[in-house]
Write a structure and sequence with these properties.
With 264 residues, the chain is of the alpha/beta class. A hairpin with a 2-residue loop joins β4 and β5. It is globular, with a radius of gyration of 19 Å. It starts with a strand and ends with a helix.
């Protein structure tokens, strides 16, 4: 979830502190078309002042300009929200080519360590929600059906130990999702496909819970991985001390969201 803001000066400061940015959503999956929105995720270096604050939120900051959404998350929140399952978008960026050969390449090397119970449960939870919301009379029926099927597919991929975000290794799945989204299949065909993936979704939920109960998967990650990740992050942030000295004053946005919920 995002907290919207319209302060142009804060937008500029967050942009100046950004160390990585990428398009997100359908552009990541190779499912974008002429009607697709353009959204960006920016990962920035947090200011020392904010790091010493008691206030923290898993919500991202969002700025809208010329029909483009700019989403901002600190490097700490970027990582934390993957471990807790609060952001599937972050995980998809991590497994995409977008992050390789960038300043966050080291994080790309750690990507398989982020495959945990929380993130897979998040995909299955969103898929279950999307399936319940499916209505063939809804003008966004195709888009929602595509989201549902993709969520189940990604959960299955993660349970198998990897995530092919852009479907480079499986053109059949890319074609299937594209046909659903772009209305190249009949409504009956789409509903039949969704029914098949509903069955798979339920099977995956059982498999995931069995793996957790049997100790075959962790909720967040094993202590060795988390310790190594934390130490690498601390070293990485130190190399950007000049950016961490910049003032980023947005605490009141988090105070308000804590009291009243995010303002979308």
């Amino acid at each position: 979830m995002n907290i919207h803001f319209d302060n142009i000066e804060l937008f500029k400061k967050l942009t100046n502190n950004t160390i990585f940015s990428s398009k997100i959503g359908s552009h990541t999956y190779n499912l974008n078309n002429e009607q697709s929105d353009i959204d960006y995720l920016y990962v920035y270096i947090e200011s020392k002042e904010n790091l010493n604050s008691f206030m923290w939120s898993h919500h991202q900051l969002q700025y809208k300009k010329d029909n483009v959404d700019y989403n901002f998350t600190s490097i700490q929140s970027f990582i934390r929200n993957m471990l807790t399952g609060d952001s599937t978008i972050n995980l998809e960026i991590l497994f995409s080519d977008a992050i390789d050969d960038t300043k966050l390449h080291w994080l790309y090397e750690y990507r398989k360590g982020f495959i945990n119970y929380n993130i897979i449960k998040s995909y299955l939870g969103m898929a279950k929600r999307d399936f319940k919301m499916l209505n063939k009379k809804d003008k966004n029926f195709n888009k929602k059906a595509s989201h549902f099927v993709r969520g189940v597919i990604f959960a299955q991929m993660l349970l198998e130990g990897d995530l092919d975000v852009s479907f480079k290794e499986n053109k059949y799945l890319l074609s299937l999702l594209s046909n659903i989204k772009n209305n190249n299949m009949s409504t009956i065909e789409i509903l039949d496909t969704c029914s098949t993936y509903e069955t798979l979704m339920n099977e995956l939920r059982k498999t995931l819970n069995d793996k957790l109960n049997n100790g075959e998967i962790t909720k967040y990650g094993d202590a060795i991985f988390l310790s190594k990740l934390d130490e690498t992050l601390k070293y990485f942030v130190k190399t950007y001390e000049d950016l961490s000295n910049n003032e980023l004053n947005y605490s009141t946005l988090f105070y308000d969201s804590l009291e009243n919920g995010p303002s979308y």
